[in-house]
Specification:
- By secondary structure, this protein is an alpha/beta fold.
- Helix content is 44%, strand content 17%.
- The chain has one domain: Rossmann fold.
- The protein contains 10 helices and 8 strands.
- Strands 1-2-4-3-5-6-7-8 form an 8-stranded mixed sheet, with helices on both faces.
- Helix 1 packs across helix 10 and helix 2 crosses helix 3.
- The relative contact order is 0.16.
C-alpha cells in the first residue's frame, strides 16, 4: 500500500499511533523486496515492521520527477515517518541505505531509537570505480534469488536514475556521511557479512567508532546483503541488540 506517498510493505502487528516500529531501509536502486525474509522473521518475533520503497525507486518511482540525493531521501523518509505518527523507531538499513539512515538520525534524532547498519556503503576512501569493482566481486557471493530481485528492481527504477543515485551517494560519502555518523547518539549496531567485499572489517569498525554508542558484528557465510542470505541470524542479532542497555555489550 502507499503511505505518505511511498509504497510501503507491512509485516506483523499494525503499529499503533505513537508506538515504535522497525523500519527497513533499502539500498541504491532497489526496493524493499529484498528485506522481506528479514521482515517476516522480525514479525514472527512480535515486531511491527514497515518497509518503504524510497522515492524515485521501484514502486515509489513516480513519487518524484528525478533521482533525489541522500539528504532529500532522508527528508522524505522523515516526512513518511511523521505522517504515520510513529514513535522513535529502530532503523535497519543496508548499503547506501545506511547513508540515508545516518542522515535521518543526524537531522531528526527524535525519530530514531536505535540503528542497525548492514554493510554500510559507500566508504569515502574508495573511488566510484573501486566501488563498482567491489559490487561486481560481491555478485557471485549472493544467492541467485537475490540477484534476480535486484536485476528486476534496477530495471523498474531505470538505469539513468540508478546512475544519478550512485553519483549522489558518492558525493554524500565524500562530503557528509562521516559527519552525519558523528552526530548519531543512539545505540548503533554495524553488521557485515564475513564475505562482504564492499564493507570491509576496518570500515565497519570506523563507522562504529564514529557514532556515539557503536558496536560491530560479523555474520559468517554471508556477503553484502547479509540480511537476505542469513535472515534468521540477522533477526536474532537485532532482537538481542534491541534488548541491550545503551552503552552495554551487544
Amino acid at each position: 500500500m502507499t503511505e505518505a506517498g511511498l509504497f510501503t510493505r507491512r509485516f506483523g502487528v499494525l503499529p499503533r499511533s505513537g508506538a515504535p516500529a522497525v523500519v527497513l531501509v533499502h539500498g541504491l536502486g532497489l526496493s524493499g523486496r529484498y528485506f522481506v525474509p528479514l521482515a517476516r522473521r522480525l514479525a514472527e518475533r512480535g515486531a511491527a515492521v514497515l518497509v518503504p520503497d524510497l522515492p524515485g525507486t521501484a514502486r515509489s518511482r513516480a513519487a518524484v520527477a528525478r533521482a533525489p540525493d541522500v539528504r532529500q531521501l532522508a527528508l522524505a523518509l522523515a516526512h513518511w515517518h511523521r505522517s504515520l505518527a510513529l514513535a522513535p523507531s529502530l532503523l535497519v538499513a543496508n548499503s547506501v541505505g545506511c547513508q540515508v539512515a545516518a542522515a535521518l538520525a543526524a537531522s531528526n534524532p527524535r525519530m530514531v531509537r536505535r540503528l542497525v547498519l548492514v554493510g554500510p556503503a559507500l566508504d569515502p576512501g574508495a573511488s566510484g570505480r573501486h566501488h563498482c569493482a567491489r559490487l561486481l566481486r560481491d555478485a557471485p557471493r549472493e544467492p541467485l534469488r537475490l540477484l534476480a530481485v535486484a536485476a528486476s528492481d534496477y530495471l523498474v527504477t531505470g538505469p539513468l536514475r540508478c546512475a544519478a543515485s550512485f553519483r549522489h551517494a558518492l558525493r554524500d560519502s565524500a562530503e557528509s556521511f562521516e559527519a552525519n555518523l558523528a552526530q548519531v547518539r543512539v545505540p548503533t549496531l554495524v553488521v557485515r557479512g564475513a564475505g562482504d567485499p564492499i564493507a570491509s572489517r576496518s570500515w565497519i569498525r570506523r563507522v562504529a567508532g564514529l557514532v556515539g554508542d557503536g558496536r560491530t558484528a560479523e555474520i559468517p557465510g554471508a556477503a553484502h546483503a547479509a540480511h537476505y542470505s542469513a535472515p534468521d541470524v540477522m533477526a536474532t542479532l537485532i532482537q538481542k541488540f534491541a534488548a541491550t542497555e545503551p552503552g552495554g555489550p551487544a
